Amino acid sequence: MHICQSMVGRWYNQGSVGTLLLAMAGALQVNPTVVSIFDLSPSEKLQLVEDLWDDLAATPEAVPVYDWQKEELARRKANLIQNPASGLMWEDVKRRIRSRYGR
Q1: pLDDT: is 67 or 34 the higher one?
Q2: The whole model's pTM is what?
Q3: Of 37, 44, 53, 101, which is least packed with CB atoms within 10 Å of its CB?
């Protein structure tokens, strides 16, 4: 097993960003070619992002929502109420993206 996959696995099982950082520090001592998260393979980076996202989603109340974000959401909601036809159904959005990018 590649050392980076091991780091992500240990962090995910213990569920702590601090544990991830400690695992990375340990990996740097074991494998000096692993310098940072930017040295991870694309699949390892995606796994790390997924793990971080899951960790954030577990406690949404701890994720800050700034005033400018609330204002933007309120603006978009008001626009949708004023112009219901301006919105798109999720299926239409997915279809457009898939036709544009061939997936």
Answers
A1: 67
A2: 0.47
A3: 101
